[in-house]
């Protein structure tokens, strides 16, 4: 497995996290991180990547140093995201927009993005606005998650005009009651729950930690997430059911969104959702692969806009 002091290789070229973590610089930006620094058996200075509090401190330091985000935090037991991997999704989404805009990266406040399940960490809106100045709506079903995300925004007043939060009152819906009749979104994104049950989630975590390796990092996977609430990690039917439901629901909003997208954790899920993609009659779709060292992830993108509608969208919204 990968060395946790080094973000996974082969990240997106614009990803800021290409090199080994520069712990002295990060500690200078966020002195709290120094409290978690230890000397490994190999004589290196690093944090203990099996300690959830150390991971949170690292995330706070990364977000402050690279993106100017102050006071990031999440309640105990909530999903703690690996920053390099989350940033990769954002950069690949930017490339997706550029592929629809003659290779030009659309930047600025005219780009509207909807994050389905922004969670307590609000990570995609934070990185997406910092990197590309996009406007975000972060939707979630859980009030406590939204309260945590709002606390992060309150610590960063400059973000208040660019990231708005909205509660989804129906846990079976993604877009309904969030997308209003006059809304237009250039992108939607989602990191869906992928386990089918709490039991499967528990077994998966046990497999991950059965041989966690030594603290020197020789066998600890730095992409592991710590914590996670039920709605973040599992749902009935797992990611196949969730993504299938999302695709079917997206039909009624097809004229209001340029690209719908969703992360897909398992290669086998692509075959399982293929009949649904054919059923709804989309105009175009893509599967984009993201390689991060030994780990390969992917997301699907689909659109209902006709060529004429796409051209008009580009002219009116992207200049």
UniProtKB/TrEMBL annotation:
Protein's cellular compartments: Cytoplasm
Catalytic activity: adenosine(1618) in 23S rRNA + S-adenosyl-L-methionine = N(6)-methyladenosine(1618) in 23S rRNA + S-adenosyl-L-homocysteine + H(+)
Native source species: Parathalassolituus penaei
HAMAP family: 23SrRNA_methyltr_F
Keywords annotated in UniProt: Cytoplasm, Methyltransferase, rRNA processing, S-adenosyl-L-methionine, Transferase
Protein name: Ribosomal RNA large subunit methyltransferase F
GO biological process terms held by the UniProt record: rRNA base methylation
GO molecular function terms attached to this record: 23S rRNA (adenine(1618)-N(6))-methyltransferase activity
Role played: Specifically methylates the adenine in position 1618 of 23S rRNA.
Chief localisation class: cytoplasm
């Amino acid at each position: 497995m990968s060395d946790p002091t080094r973000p996974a290789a082969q990240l997106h070229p614009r990803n800021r996290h290409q090199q080994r973590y520069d712990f002295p610089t990060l500690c200078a930006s966020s002195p709290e991180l120094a409290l978690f620094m230890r000397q490994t058996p190999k004589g290196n200075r690093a944090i203990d990547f099996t300690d959830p509090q150390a991971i949170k401190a690292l995330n706070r330091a990364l977000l402050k140093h690279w993106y100017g985000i102050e006071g990031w935090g999440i309640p105990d037991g909530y999903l703690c995201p690996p920053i390099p991997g989350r940033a990769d999704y954002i950069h690949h989404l930017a490339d997706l927009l550029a592929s629809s805009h003659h290779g030009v990266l659309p930047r600025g406040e005219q780009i509207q993005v909807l994050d389905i399940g922004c969670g307590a960490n609000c990570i995609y809106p934070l990185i997406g606005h910092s990197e590309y100045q996009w406007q975000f709506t972060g939707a979630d079903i859980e009030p406590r998650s939204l309260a945590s995300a709002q606390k992060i925004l309150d610590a960063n007043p400059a973000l208040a005009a660019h990231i708005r939060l909205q509660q989804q009152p129906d846990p079976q819906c993604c877009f309904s009651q969030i997308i209003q009749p006059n809304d237009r979104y250039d992108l939607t994104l989602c990191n869906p729950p992928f386990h089918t049950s709490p039991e499967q989630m528990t077994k998966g975590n046990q497999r991950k930690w059965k041989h966690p390796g030594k603290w020197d990092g020789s066998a600890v996977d730095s992409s592991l997430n710590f914590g996670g609430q039920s709605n973040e990690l599992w749902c009935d039917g797992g990611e196949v059911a969730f993504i299938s439901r999302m695709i079917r629901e997206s039909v009624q909003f097809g004229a209001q969104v340029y690209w719908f997208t969703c992360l897909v954790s398992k290669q086998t899920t692509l075959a399982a959702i293929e009949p649904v993609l054919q059923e709804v009659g989309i105009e175009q779709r893509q599967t984009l692969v993201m390689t991060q060292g030994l780990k390969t992830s992917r997301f699907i993108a689909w659109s209902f806009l006709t060529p004429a509608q796409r051209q008009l969208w580009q002219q009116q919204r992207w200049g």
